[in-house]
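Bench notes, afternoon.
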Amino acid sequence: MDTLTHIALGASLGEVLLGKRLGRRAALAGAFANSIPDLDFVMAFFLDADDNLLAHRGFTHSILFAVIASVLCALIFERWFHRRTIHLRSWLGFFAAEIFLHIFIDAFNNYGTAWFEPFDHFRVSFQTVFVADPFFSVWLGIGLLALIICKTHQWRKRWAIVGLVCSSIYLVYCVWNKGQVDRDVKMALEEQHIPYNNIFSTPAPLNNWLWFVAAGSDSGFYVGYRSVFDKERTMDLKFFPKNQWMLKGLEDRDDVKNLMRFSQGYYTLERWGGDTLVFNDLRFGQTAGWEDSSARFAFHYYLSHPDENKLVVQRGRFASWDRKTLQAFWRRIRGR
């Protein structure tokens, strides 16, 4: 999730767990604790773009790191607040709850979270919530505002619980939507006699009603969008060939190896302008595919010009958005 959401989430949980004993400082401690795994942003200043893809949400989002960080922070804070009646066990539970909640929530996005590093490079991803979903974050934001305004712990705790409960209900609703979309997509593919080996679905930007879908086969991917409000059983799908042959002679390059590992098989290759070889990671959807089925993918990496890949994950995500795009977005959300 985005940084502000983690801050609001951590502050609310901090108030609930330690607000009675720490007062307003519990929210500050919670915001800090919930943000600890995102210290990996520092690596972006020292790593190439392809290496940073794997470093981000890598070891600092693992179960092992969560355990180590919880113990270290508990020892530090127990000594820092030694005059207060907060035992080491309470601090350990506090930091464990905050840090484990962070890596758990992040797994609902499509980026992937390396829970099992360094023992296994597999990334956990439920592909259920867009990385910045205002309908998830707004409840936590209301709770954070209450933490700032309310003067008594009783009222701060009440509003913090409201924010946590409402965001949790919305998260369950998102899981339900994904299940519905996946069922509808499988039915559509069968009715349209489209062969596939696997299906990937993830929410389009800033909502949980319109979903980007990629159905993969050995030769490529059928790509389209599905709204939870769609009444038509069939789908408009565009085929993108995988073009794996374009990697011939490049298989041993480090950035290619990293991209292959990161994309988990959901990639295509294409040439732009005749001489620029581009690697697309389909898991991040298209820039405005609901309006133009041939729109570029939000994640594209220039294999021909690796020095021009300062930003690859959300490259051009909102660059083409205008009033017409937003209107088409809203119409597509409402369904067909």
